[in-house]
Task: structure prediction
Amino acid sequence: MRRIVAAAIGLVAFAAGPVLGAEPLKIRQAYVAVVSNWVSILFAKDGLARHAGKSYVLDPVHFKGSPQILTALATGDLEIGHLAYSSLGLAIENAGLTDLRIISGEFQDGVPGHYSDEYFVLKDSPIHKVEDLKGRVLATNGAGSAIDIGLRAMLRKHGLDERKDVTIIEASLPNMAAMLMEHKVDLFASVPPFALDPTLRSAARPLFTQREALGRTQMAVWVARLSFIKVHRAALVDYLEDALRAERWFLNPANHHEAVEIAARIGKQPPSKYDSWLFTDKDYYRDPNGLPDMQALQANIHVQKELGFLKADLDVNKYAALDLVEEAAARLKQSSQR
Result:
């Protein structure tokens, strides 16, 4: 999959040569989920990456999850990481990456008018309220993950102790629906595209959403180390300008059909899998200026600490360098006014 994404980007990235003989900066950026994570798809549309091959060259790198991304950031084998909010605090507190800085937001859950992660039970299940989960088996994709924290927070809101009153098991996201159908679990946490599968929705119903559990959630952010930002700020702003231009193109309803065709090609799926929801209000919210919701992120980190996954609250504003993406957005605004 990395080869497919890199090839699409390469057509754009190498179209122009280095400026005045200077080598363009190589930016290795992590992604986990194809299509859902911006970097896997950003420059598959020709003409959007106007600085690529001049000041920078983008190299998307696929990782299985945040632990591997943190290792690569720590060893200097990655310039930009994609981290769920639940991994950000752990990176700073446990991995000692105190020089990490948030440079952009990826997507948000719980924004009114947009999708929120769902926690499913069978339609004929006797479970009709959260309190009915007592004594039941619940599935998430891993202890301390973003959707796992949403589940635990909801249980506590309704007087249930996730350590005593329920059994929480871990399973891969693609396998959870089958586990529910086979009565191996009583509830599972799901995300797009799995949550939008018609077969699942015909047999199951959401008991609650992550919005009800956590409110607004800054689900993922882009991070880079401060030492890298200081040396390569100009190239990073160029890249973020191109990234915002591409994001806005994909989010424009006028481009929906072509965007879905691109997603289908990159994701190796039929267009029908994406057409009804991707980059629409049935999808997560993606800020067109690339800005994360820092207030939501702070609240998310606090819940993570209250659930025992962090030792202390972190002031997320101390780990932000949003002036880069703000400058990138300002450039786009100026160019549109010319």
